[in-house]
Amino acid sequence: MEVSKLLPLLGLLGYVIYWFYGMVEVYWLKPKRLEKILREQGFKGNPYRLLRGDQHENDKLLKETLYKPIQIGDNIIKRMMPDVYKTLQTHGKNSFMWIGRYPRVTLTDPTLVKEVLTKNVTFQKSYHDLDPLIEINKIN
């Protein structure tokens, strides 16, 4: 009789452990593995931060640039893409930044860009622009 009462609890505990591991895998282990692979390939960037990535800094940079008036001779890249500009200035030409739990790679070497554009089967475009959690955080 006591075993039959423990089975549902053990099943629930097993499900909670399975769910928790899935969340840890998706939101911590996989991004850290991607970061390690990118660093081994010679890319530089900020370390992964849980859930938001670099989004908080990128939002602040964008707000700062929008409040400053623009002059005729100003560099338009600093104004339109301040996050990419800052990443290129701090980490070099081949770098990455985090959009939620996804790394966004920036390439400026023409041979690498040509390789990525010609091998569209190997380098497929990801159709999820942002993590859903980032969209929720941006609304609040």
UniProtKB/TrEMBL annotation:
Gene Ontology CC entries for this record: membrane
Family from the record: Belongs to the cytochrome P450 family.
Keyword vocabulary terms for this entry: Heme, Iron, Membrane, Metal-binding, Monooxygenase, Oxidoreductase, Transmembrane, Transmembrane helix
Family annotation (PANTHER family): CYTOCHROME P450 72A11-RELATED, CYTOCHROME P450 FAMILY MEMBER
InterPro entries xrefs: Cyt_P450_sf (IPR036396), Cytochrome_P450_Monooxygen (IPR050665)
Entry's Gene Ontology molecular function annotations: heme binding; iron ion binding; monooxygenase activity; oxidoreductase activity, acting on paired donors, with incorporation or reduction of molecular oxygen
Sequence intervals crossing the membrane: 6-29
Localization per record: Membrane
Protein name: Uncharacterized protein
Keyword Nucleotide-binding attached: no
Keyword Cell membrane included in the entry's annotation: no
